[in-house]
Structures are given as C-alpha cells and as structure tokens.
Amino acid sequence: LLVPFRERFEELLAFVPYMHRFLSKKRIRHHIFILNQVDHFRFNRASLINVGFLESGNDTDYIAMHDVDLLPLNEQLDYGFPEAGPFHVASPELHPLYHYKTYVGGILLLTKQHYEMCNGMSNRFWGWGREDDEFYRRIKGAGLQVRRPSGITTGYETFQHLHDPAWRKRDQKRIAAQKQEQFKVDREGGLNNVRYRIESRTALSVAGAPCTVLNILLDCDTSETPWCTFG
C-alpha cells in the first residue's frame, strides 16, 4: 500500500491498524508505506506515489495507491493481484463522494509492470486534485482497461470516509497557468523524472500493525511548475 501523506496523524492512527487487520483477514501479504511529504512545497500526491513505487523494493509485485482517509467496510472487496489490468477498488458506484465514470482515485491496484507502462503519474500536479484524472488518460494511452468490483451490494456504504473538510481544508488554489495545465496530459514526465530525496526511513508499529514511514523531500523546478509554491 502506497499512502500519500502529510499532517494527518489522527487518520493515520486509524488507517494502519485497520488496513493491517482487513488485509490479514483476507490473507493478503502486504506492506504499508506511509509517504510523508516533509518539504515546504505544496502537496503532490502523484509524485509521492512515484517515490513510493521506486522505494518499495523488489519483494512486492503489485501496488495499491491508497488514500489515508478511505477505509473499506465490505470484506468482499478484492485486493488481490490485478493481473488483468488496473483494478479500481473505490469505483464511482461505491465511493461516498466521487461518482463520475472516469474516476480512478481513492484506491487503485496495479501490477508494477502496468504502472511502469504508464510511466507512473505526472509530477506536475501540486495542490489538491486532477492528478488521478490525468492518470486515467495514461492508463488508456498504455492500452490498459480499468476493471472495477462487481456484485457489491453495499453501495455508498462500502467505504468509510474519514476526512472532515470543515476543519481540514484542502489546498484547491489554482495559481497562474495551473488553471490551464490541470486539464492537459503530461506526455513527458512521470517515473522517469521525479526528483526527490529520502530524509529518513523508519519502521513503525501503530497499535501492533507494522508500516514503514518514508520522510520524502520532493524537489520542484519552479521554471516548469511555478505553482508548486504559494510564493
């Protein structure tokens, strides 16, 4: 599990033990990586996932891109090896908030091979949103088909969404050319040009559940993406 993260410790304390129990009960071998962005740039979910992919080691054969504020409530949800293509666990028919057809955020499983075929995610999305919409187009461009759960009868009660927007505002500001950029496909960047440094790697136990915290310093070329800062 690759979990992009910044300053949401109460959600993390709930997420790690819950997911460890959930996946252990399903007998799925797993390792939870908390991708903690510790630089002073705006949050970049996609770049963190790219870093997590590169740092997750060779003993994993597939990844789950997993939001820290989304917990699966239905044990019928499939977290198994997504051999046939990207498997979108948090599908629009089940996600409590996002219901449009091309949505692939929240929880998405991919083999490492398929993620590499997409060149990972674009590093140009600083601030909240749109990076998964661009990734949907990468998936299609790689000739892959998104699959989704079937036979799940719990509807919008399938997940618990932990995020409270009343006191934790999302960074939705659009600065300068970012307004136009957010709808473009990034045909150049991704896994091949993510710039970062690992400040520390810490094995942690949360209520008895193991995880690894990567403290990640992302780098930004302000001539390319000046909207990575609020300055």
Automatic annotation (TrEMBL):
It is found in: Golgi apparatus membrane. Its EC number is 2.4.1.133. One of its GO terms (molecular function) is metal ion binding. Keywords: Glycoprotein, Glycosyltransferase, Golgi apparatus, Manganese, Membrane, Metal-binding, Signal-anchor, Transferase, Transmembrane, Transmembrane helix. Pathway: Protein modification; protein glycosylation. GO terms for cellular component: Golgi membrane. InterPro entries: Galactosyl_T, Galactosyl_T_C, Galactosyl_T_N, Nucleotide-diphossugar_trans. It holds the Pfam family Glyco_transf_7N. It is a single-pass type II membrane protein. Its cofactor is Mn(2+). CDD domains: b4GalT. This is Beta-1,4-galactosyltransferase 7. It comes from Phaethon lepturus.
